## 1
Amino acid sequence: MTVTVEQIEQVIPGLVEPVMGNRCLLQQCRRLTAGASADTWWLQATVGQQQHQWILRLDAGGEDLGMAPGKQWEARAQQAAADAGCATATVIAELGEDSGLGCGYLMAALPGESLPPVLLKSPAYDTARRRFPDQVAGALAAIHRTPLTGLGGLPVLDARRQLEQLYAMHRDYGEPLPVFALAYGWLKEHVPDNASLTLVHGDFRLGNFLFTESGLSGILDWELTHLGDPMEDLGWLCVNAWRFGRRAKPVAGLTQREVFHAAYEAASGRPVDPVHARYWELLGTFKWGVICQYQAYSYLRGRVSSVERAAIGRRVAETEYDMLICLKELQDAA
Amino acid sequence: MPLNRPHARELQQAIEHYRQRPDPDPGVHEYYGKVIAHLEALLEREKALAAAFAHQEKEGMEQLAAVLKSSDQTLSGLCRRLASGNVNEHLPAVLETLLAVAEAKLDIDSPRYPRAN
């Protein structure tokens, strides 16, 4: 559904007032992004005498890779992780189907910058970059120790399930590509047999981390959160696409795997088997390749008329190369 | 391991389609202008390198079929064989063959993409 400022002004005060116990007056309301899966708004309000800034995330009802839990479960997972000590925004209220705005949630707006080029290069973020391994590993450890009580509506997406789902999507495009077939065959044969089951962020990467100049202020974008193998988040963080051109620094283009794994082990008490984490790096690269195909085929099949979507199809070559390099490194490590 | 879709003609159509209905927002239009410039450069490279790539790809797939001792030498047949797993003993040769083709594909699609050492 398309939401207007007027609708938000009508709905939000009635939602917030019972929670905050005071009269709410919305002062500003601005759309931030109208993505394929979420419609995101920035709001400023006064509740009683206090001024607040909030983010409203609404279900855009559009595209879905078949892995998203829905906005209400997204909100619950985010809040449960916040309660477990993860730096992330506090959820103020959930919106159901009948809210007048569709499904979504309202959360506190956090300060900071999330743009990777700025975070990677700007001298203003020197301190934040230095603190990155400990702070981001600490946040990830908190996500993975989040109690699962009350999160039963999240999908369980272990390696095998994701692999089959992604390969089915790939095959549906009808483009036989040997690298995808090789990666699928290898991943299918090497599924880790000792995976734990925890809350998984699902899109834990640079671009979804909010930093101020002094360090991490919050983990963003929980729309792919699920239950699964915690090593998935460590692998996805190292997928080459999220290094933003800095191949030699596998963790978000900022540091080495060993440094981050040590910080995560210290924060979580959970040992990291580097080969297990690398398995998920390969599966993550495979997933990114299928997502690139998904975006290209949304253009080719006439669902989305966008020259940008068409261009993404030719980035699949990058993911093919990365899958081969990842497999070669896994083979060398064996 | 052919070039990925959209093919050259499909990319050209996407560019023409956008030019017929450009975005009214100047900022968005400027962004799409960059996407189109990127695609036009890609199409130029494809024009120059496609024949050599097709030759290298054909050789690579023949080599792959030989390494895998596959009776079905079609692209679909090779993919089925790779997807079935059980290629561990051939993995170094498979990787070497596919990497050469993947690099040639990157020379067209993304020549500035950082390569591994």
## 2
Amino acid sequence: MEQPLWEVFIRSRQGLDHKHVGSLHAADARMAIESARDVYTRRMEGVSIWVVESKNIHASSPDEAASFYEPAEDKIYRHPTFYKLPDEVEYM
Amino acid sequence: MNESNTIDYLMLLADSSLIMGQRLSEWTGHGPMLEQDIAITNISLDTIGQARYFYQLAAARLNEKSGNADVTEDTLAYLRDAHQYKNLLLVELPNGDWGQTILKIFFYAHRQKLMYEKLSGSADAEIAGIASKALKEVEYHVSWSSDWVKRLGDGTQESHDRMTKALEYLWPYTGEMFVPATYEKNFLENEFSFDVLKQGWLDKVSGILTEATLSLPPADTYMHTGGKTGVHTEYLGYILAEMQFLQRAYPGCEW
């Protein structure tokens, strides 16, 4: 059976984000969610499922890696590490 | 309430679930696609799990009655012969193709849902507990199989034809679900009407079959019975031979 590919995102607990867990084949969204339930939540991994047809995900190209990411390498001032935290500030 | 009615009724529940699960497990590794292979294996494990609860309860009640401790879920599952099994004929039929298997799950799950809804309010607290746990599993079997019936019935010409064939084959085995055996009637103490149960099932099932563009067989179709009192098709013996071989050949064997 030739069926479209779907990406599966699962939220493992209330309050957490959905995380990508893998992909599967299904005829439509309903079947994709049911299959995701059967394939990816058998061991209590989740409380919520998102599925997105893989063709709807647009990815950055590896060819652009140099122009995309390398310019950030020497911009250390973007990391807020130069600030002195007053002692009174907790939990930072 | 007569205890032996309760035990017989527990065996009907347990045997039907076990044989259903054993049959469905034949699909493991053979599903039409990986995702559905896992789905049907999950359903198989659900029904075997339900069978275990009912066997464990039956074993406890039998031991209580006899004062011994020699009955276990394993002796009930592995050391009884076909005529002692009380499962519905429907669940022992061969799987056939994917469509036929789906339709079998569809008929059975819709009925299990109605049954477990009733049983979850049973005066027997232990049975009520198992039923309410099983109900959540069965609700998924209902929606999963109903979706597939619609997809295949209203799919291609070939899937439609196969579903029509499966419907003709399986339909005569659905009536037994609504003809109570004596012990079944006694246990339920006429708590609910099997005619009402059947009507509820028929409403659900026929609605979905219509949506799937499949037509309901005539109301006067001949219905097979016998499973509930140990009169089975030739298929059950083969299932038991395979399932029980190890315990029969090597008694007490563990692995």
